[in-house]
Each structure stands twice: as structure tokens, then as C-alpha cells.
């Protein structure tokens, strides 16, 4: 919860919300560790049999940003989506977070909409993005070969 609160100071999830997410059979969460310490986490919501999924959250400690933890976590989420036979993954990202947007675009996400003033109390728009999972999987396999 410390990482949640420092990563999202104005709109952090409550402990109850986080607990519900972690306990849900529809969710998959992954962590990044360094020296036995959690430095990042990410979650995917993908109900059994669903054709689409949502990236619920990705957080990386400020001290280790730029070291590839965000990409590694996102890759884990997308592999999980592929394993669950999801066709599309959606996410919302703050319009004032160009670093995260660039990461998502580099993995194949495309902007499909905007939600004005979505993030409160900051009045920041949400950029809604979509990824074609089978296309991502094909590209990831080709790059690994």
C-alpha cells in the first residue's frame, strides 16, 4: 500500500479495494522485486471466458523507474491475457503521463478515446487505449526467435 500511495498520491486505491482486487478470481497480479523489496506491481482483470481484459494498474517505485520494470510488468500482463485467450486489452492512462503512454504505444496499444477530467481531484483526462492481443503475441514470438 505504501507504493500505491506514493505512486498515486491523489487517487490511490483503498486497502479494501486493493484487497478485493487481489482476492478476485478475475484478476492476475504480478510484482517486480529488487533485493527482496517490491519495487513495482501490475494487475489485469480478465474474467474467465471474456474476449477482453483491462489493465487495472501498473506502479513502479520512483527510484527504479527507467530500468525496465514497467515494461516487464506490462509484458507479464499481456502474456497472462494471451494465456486466457483474451482478444483485446484496454487501459486508461493519465493524459499527463507521456512516459507511460509511450510504453503502451511501443507495445502496440493505440488510443481509441478520451475521458475528459476522468482523474479526480486533478481534472486530468484519461486516454483510453486498446491492444490486439493475438497481433501482440505474434510479434512477441517473432522478436523472441
**Hey, roughly how much beta strand do the residues contain?**
35-45%
Q: What gyration radius follows from the Cα positions, in whole Å?
A: 15 Å
> SS-based structural class?
alpha+beta
* Mean pLDDT over the full residue set: 95
Question: What's the CATH topology name?
Answer: Aminopeptidase
Task: Tell me the number of strands.
Answer: 6
SSE string: HHEEEHEHEEH
Q: Please summarize the sheet with the most strands.
A: 6 strands, mixed
Q: Roughly how many Å apart are the termini? A: 38 Å
Per DSSP, the total helix count is 5
Low-confidence stretches: none
Name given to the CATH architecture = 3-Layer(aba) Sandwich
The general outline is globular
Please, what is the CATH homologous superfamily? Gcn5-related N-acetyltransferase (GNAT)
Helix content: 25-40%
In brief, what are we looking at here?
The chain is α+β, with helices and mostly antiparallel strands and 145 residues long. It has five helices and six strands. The protein has one domain: Aminopeptidase.
Amino acid at each position: 500500500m505504501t507504493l500505491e500511495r506514493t505512486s498515486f498520491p491523489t487517487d490511490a486505491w483503498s486497502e479494501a479495494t486493493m484487497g478485493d482486487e487481489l482476492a478476485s478470481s478475475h484478476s492476475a497480479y504480478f510484482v517486480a522485486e529488487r533485493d527482496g523489496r517490491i519495487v513495482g506491481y501490475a494487475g489485469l482483470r480478465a474474467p474467465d471466458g471474456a474476449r477482453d481484459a483491462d489493465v487495472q494498474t501498473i506502479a513502479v517505485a520512483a527510484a527504479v523507474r527507467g530500468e525496465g520494470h514497467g515494461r516487464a510488468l506490462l509484458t507479464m500482463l499481456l502474456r497472462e491475457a494471451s494465456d486466457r485467450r483474451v482478444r483485446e486489452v484496454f487501459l486508461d492512462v493519465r493524459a499527463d503521463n507521456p512516459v507511460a503512454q509511450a510504453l503502451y504505444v511501443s507495445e502496440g496499444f493505440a488510443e481509441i478515446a478520451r475521458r475528459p477530467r476522468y482523474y479526480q481531484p486533478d481534472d486530468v483526462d484519461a486516454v483510453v487505449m486498446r491492444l490486439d492481443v493475438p497481433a501482440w503475441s505474434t510479434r512477441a514470438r517473432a522478436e523472441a526467435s
